[in-house]
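Bug report

Summary: structure tokens for EAL domain-containing protein differ between web form and batch submission.
Environment: batch mode, default settings.
Steps: 1) Submit the sequence below via batch. 2) Compare with the web form result.

Sequence submitted:
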Amino acid sequence: MNKQILQRLLICGFALLLLIAAGICAKQIEQAFSSAHQTKAKQSLQLYSQNVMFQLQNKLNEAEPLARLALAAKDPDADWFEQAAAPVMKKEGVRYACLVEGDTVVSALPKAEYGSRVGKDLKDFSYVYTMAKVIKDTVVEGPIAIRSNGSEEEVFLFLQPIVKNNAYLGEVAVALDSSFVLKNLGLDGLSQQGYDYEVWHVDPENGDKEIVAVSGDSLDFSHAAKVNINLPPQWTLSIQPQDGWLPASFVVGIYIICFFAAILVMALGLLLYKLFLQRRRIRQLDIIDRQTGLYNQENFASALDLWLADGPVTLFYFVFDGYCQISQMIGPEQESAFLKSIPGRLTEFIKSPFIAGRLGAENFAVGIREKMNEKQREEFANGLSLELLLNIRLNNCKNFLPARCQYVYCQQGSRAEDMIASVIDSYYNSRAEESPVRMLTEKCRRLIEGDTDVTFEEYTDLEMMELSKTFNQYRKQVEQMAYFDPVFHVGNRIKYLKDSKVLITYDNKRKFSLFCVDICSFSQYNDLFSADIGDKILHETLRRLSRFFGTYLYRINGDVFLGISLSEESEASFAEKLQKSMAEPVHANSSSFALKIRMVICRYPDHGSNPEALLDCIQSALRFAKTSDRQYVIYNDRLDEMIRTEAGIIHHLKSSIEQETLEVWYQPMAHLVSGTYNAVEALVRLPAGNGTYFSAGQVVSLAERSGMVEVLGDYVLKKACKFIASHGSKLGLEHMGINLSVQQLLMGNSSNHLLTMIETAGADHKRITLEITESILIQSIEQASAILDKLREAGIRIALDDFGIGFSSLNYLSNLPVDVIKIDRSLTRQIPTNPKQHALLRAIVEMAKINSLTVVAEGIESQQEQSLIAALDIQFIQGFYYARPMPEEELTRFLKEKNPHSDPQLTPT
């Protein structure tokens, strides 16, 4: 089908090229005829321009002889001019004559009509009078209108200057009737030759185009042939054929003839092409196998020789063992259909150039010109064996006859017959060394090692065939256990990865959507009711989800499900239906529950090119949905940017720790009794590279999620301990607060690890305060207590950070293994406006005194807050009111100014 389409496209392209060539040829013929006509017109123009010049400068110029007489006269005067001009005035067409001496008219004839002009200056007349004076040569102007006794007459004005020794003495002007002049110019001869004409010049005074003569009104001479007539002023003669340079009927005829010739050439070409195809088919009958359409054995070797002359080839040899027996059982019709399908299967599977031949009833060979390593050749052979699989039904049972393969790499210049013989020998030698039992054993071993790309083929031997089927059945049971949740009988995470990989591998251009459904607060059903109730809720959830996703439904976590949608329906519409289905109450035993779900969506290939990337996207979107408390999120550029930003921060954090460029800042704490700053808290600061810093909370959160928080905590602990060891006494610092993460606290042997780092840095244990959050301590109090007790025994103080934001209870203060409590900003900022919070804070301070606990108030930013806190007899205040976090150098300067007992000679490190 593809070949036929290509042939049709080539024929259409050939026809289009012929039509384009015909159009170009017709255009060139048209241009040739047009050029010939224009050449002829230019010859006529040259002739007529010379005639016009002769008429205007010689035959019609009556002013020229009068000017010569004026120059020859010894004492010219008005009477002389009247006598000399009398014969001229009697000539046909002459309407006016005058004599100018210098710039003054001294005589104008006829006197009755133009005598009033005598005595006037040149500037009182047309600009052409002055022009003749300037250029000192004949000037012809017209047609122009001259007035006489109140009437106007259209004339051509001939001006001849009187010049002696290149000095202007005066001029003679003679006016001739315009119709008389035009008649003598002979322009009507152009009309008789079939031309339209136009004579014009540019008015030297105002630059306008002045028409001298034209053969008709409203004619466009933009494409006319033109010639200049060198008169002062310069005239232009334009002519064009009255029917155009080429008549429309003539042009149409040219195009018709050219296109008709193109059609004849195209018809002849098609006949020759059909003859060529017929002859090629006849030749192919001798070189191809008629049942498959592939090369026969002899001609495959010839074709392979040609390929080997140009470069190396990988030769694959396929054999259908037992084909002769099977072909007799399935009948000629099914056998013919199978053989005819082989070329199409090869073309579908092989994307590179190849040649294929049938070397015998059950033997085939394929030559591939493609660079492959050994593994790629093996994979290609396995893939093509599966592609050529013969599917048959015998005794009402479905069976398969696979093609077994052997291959050999052929160097350039090798002989085809030698290579074919070599691969056949290799095949049968390997078959002799192999046994079905050994092959089954090897495949079972590969399965044990985790190879999932193992298939148990069908065999012609019935006993081996039964054994192979048994292995396949057992394998399916094992896969059921590996890929499916044993309780809910739904696919698991591994099944999702496998199914999505198959979808992408089968058609990587096919789009699909990945939906993640999370049941909000699902643990409450197990905690408040029973595990049985929870299971029934999950069973009902799976039942509803299966309506939408069918077998593409997976349980990847306790209450988190994945579904692959191949529907072309919009995600918003699909999600709306899904949410509507899940909104219906779930009935379990005698109870009814209204589930609240959270749904996130991503798309292949927009958001990931492989199953793992899609799963990462969906999990990132789910985290975003939980942190932002959204019920419906589609993965988008914002999430992608957030993930990229987080990855960049993690990479930057890791690099900064390795290069020791991560900064540790310190926020001083004011000791109210002494009025000094004898305690600071160490805080991490990650530079963003543009003079700003990443959010410390974001950095710590990402470090916890990426497993880097232990390294980060150790880095800060090491830096802070070195600072307090080298500068603490000199700056008057008694306590250094350092935050401790849950990973650092609960890791194996954490107390020894922390003590070793503190001692290695040279810091005094009594100066170190390790801060842990209240939520971490309360949730892990039993495991953490032993570790904290060991640290306290070594002299290290333990501070309970963020106290008062969720787990606060005055009753357990006496039981906590801590020395310091730090009141969270969320509580202290309400003191000025909330009496209840003020009373609660007072009670906390009183309970702390009873239990000998030091109290630190965090986040104090105003004078009012400071006054109220100080009145409660709290020991330390930390906040922007006193000081913001600052780097080591700035802290050193700050403490030298604020602490009276600090060393004034101390310089920042």
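Above is the batch result. After comparison, the two runs are identical; trailing whitespace caused the diff. The chain has five domains: 55-241, 297-433, 434-483, 489-635, 647-898. The chain is about 50% helix and 20% strand.
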